[in-house]
Please model this.
Amino acid sequence: MSDTIFGKIARGEVPADVVYEDDEVLVFRDLGPQAPVHLLVIPRKPIATLNDAQPADAQLLGKLLLAAAKAAALTGIADSGYRTVLNCNAAGGQEVFHLHLHVLGGRPMQWPPG
Ligand code: AMP
Model:
């Protein structure tokens, strides 16, 4: 896959407002927040889309969800509640082709999403 802005953030080449990180996962605030708290959870390993994830990535995918919950707690939205979103490809609204989970909270969410 080609390099992306999130790859550069994962390597520390571009700054981000990081709220959690470990060896495999990074969580930072979205530059264009759609809610009072809007976080992005990425694997350091570049995977372009969910379609590109392999069975060998299963543990890493689970770690993204656990990091989302941890970051929700760290930013104070765990108890009130939040939404995770994973956009895949054009019709799914994906713009950055480095797999990422959105975590949105701090306000009530609507259903269905647009
Ligand atoms: P998606 O449409 O699912 O690919 O989401 C991409 C998200 O990345 C959007 O919500 C953007 O606001 C966000 N974004 C793009 N560049 C940056 C950046 N440098 N730092 C933080 N968030 C970014």
The longest strand covers residues 37-43.
